[in-house]
């Protein structure tokens, strides 16, 4: 469901947003695959961090979930927001611990931050619905209340 601000966007902005989302999803799928399969670069990076395989697999799972979320319209903004937080950690790890190339993590952070910004109204609406339990109204209305018989 598009919000009023999203539906009023010019078509080129909408297309550009989708292109960014698809490219970012592809990149995160690619990096997650490398982490899951134990690519040499990935293993060396996480060994340098000192966390070992568990953090590599966790990061890969988060990247995979985020990539899928980027392609699901109601979740794309929230996925981008979560991936932004993940990439902040990646940039900090690259700069402070690993000491390796930092340009790719910074570029991915910039891309997912732009996607999160584009979908900010939708993301805030989703968070508000989750907080108020709007998605659970059907389930709650079918349950008997305290003191009622079913």
Automatic annotation (TrEMBL):
Keywords: Membrane, Transmembrane, Transmembrane helix. Its main location: membrane. The chain crosses the membrane at residues 12-34, 102-120. Pfam families: DoxX_2 (PF13564). GO terms for cellular component: membrane. It is found in: Membrane. It is a multi-pass membrane protein. Coiled coil: none annotated. This is Putative membrane protein YphA (DoxX/SURF4 family). It comes from Microlunatus parietis. The lineage of its organism: Bacteria, Bacillati, Actinomycetota, Actinomycetes, Propionibacteriales.
């Amino acid at each position: 469901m598009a919000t009023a601000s999203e539906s009023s966007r010019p078509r080129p902005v909408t297309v550009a947003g989708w292109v960014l989302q698809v490219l970012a999803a592809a990149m995160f799928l690619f990096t997650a695959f490398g982490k899951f399969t134990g690519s040499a670069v990935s293993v060396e990076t996480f060994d340098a961090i000192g966390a070992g395989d568990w953090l590599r697999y966790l990061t890969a799972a988060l990247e995979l979930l985020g990539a899928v979320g980027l392609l699901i319209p109601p979740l794309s903004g929230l996925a981008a927001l979560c991936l932004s937080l993940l990439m902040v950690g990646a940039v900090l790890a690259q700069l402070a611990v690993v000491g390796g190339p930092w340009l790719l993590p910074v570029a991915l952070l910039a891309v997912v931050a732009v996607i999160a910004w584009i979908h900010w109204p939708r993301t805030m609406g989703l968070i508000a619905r989750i907080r108020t339990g709007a998605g659970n109204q059907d389930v709650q209305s079918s349950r008997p209340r305290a003191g009622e018989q079913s």
